[in-house]
Input
Amino acid sequence: MSKYFLKTLRGMPLHLQGAEGIKFGKTKLDYLCINMPPVCNYRCKKCLTWANEQKLKKFIGIPKLKEIITKGKKMGVKTVGILGEGEPLLFPKIKEIITHIHKLNMIPLIATNGSLLTKEMVDFLYANGVSIALSLDTLDEKEYKEFCRGSADINVIKKI
Output
């Protein structure tokens, strides 16, 4: 594994162990993953949840989510993965959650389809120490549109 890869994926378990010398299992909890509400601007063939068709029925709310993240920090969490049944960057309060994680000196890691990575968003993510896991199934424009459907446009991501 290259040093570049390790620096790029700051916050991934392999990086934490290999590059920063952190040993897992010394605290009650090493890694926390939060699942954002199911909203998406794509309709990918691989998606089993069809997040863009679901209505949010129950969400624990921002204060409770922040409380869980803070408790995770106290238990030893080093990285918080922000995933979802869709596109986490569509969640209206995502910046508030990311900022909270960063202020706790934890590493936010977000999985995204990349469609919302504007210069402003990338600058915000960088300023808050976010590692980005970009979901790309192909770089071919036609295949991408066919596979991801919805508002999918590979050219948006290629501009990043």
